[in-house]
Specification:
Belongs to the Fur family. The protein is an alpha+beta fold. Helix content is about 45%, strand content about 15%.
């Protein structure tokens, strides 16, 4: 299943890059578009294979540099448990934490942003004199579509 590409989102990140003074190269933009086109998390090598359809000369470093840039700008998230990447639902918020729901059956990923959960984690860390610099909250299970489609 391929999602419809949100051209307003592409325009938004182009504007954000211009404001930030960073370059959204054609390769970076194309990798972002490929990530956005799928509800599933994409690995670097899956992205490379897709990129090769429009740029046959593309090599792994091209994709890894694009991914590093997109992560740094907050436009995508890394799914740590599967070493793959998804679009950030609020890429206009340069730094935020989210909770990823990952379906082990169809590989779709849903991004949630629950401030009360983040506040709870931050407060618990503070009680122990710990300053959190990164949250990776991933929950694996079966999504509603796959659960509904199951025959009991």
């Amino acid at each position: 299943m391929v999602k419809n590409l949100d051209h307003k989102l592409i325009e938004q990140i182009e504007e954000m890059c211009a404001v930030r003074g960073v370059r959204l190269t054609p390769q970076r933009k194309r990798v972002f578009e490929l990530i956005c086109a799928s509800p599933k998390a994409s690995s670097a090598y899956e992205l490379l294979e897709q990129l090769k359809t429009s740029e046959p000369q593309a090599k792994p470093p091209t994709v890894y540099r694009a991914l590093d840039f997109l992560l740094e700008q907050g436009f995508i998230h890394r799914v740590e448990s599967t070493n793959s990447f998804i679009q950030c639902n609020s890429c206009n918020a340069h730094k935020h934490y989210s909770h990823l729901l990952i379906c082990d059956k169809c590989s779709n990923v849903i991004e949630l942003q629950e401030d009360s959960l983040i506040t709870l984690l931050t407060n618990n860390a503070k009680k122990h004199g710990f300053k959190i610099t990164n949250h990776v909250i991933e929950s694996h299970g079966i999504c509603q579509s796959c659960t509904t489609g199951q025959t009991e």
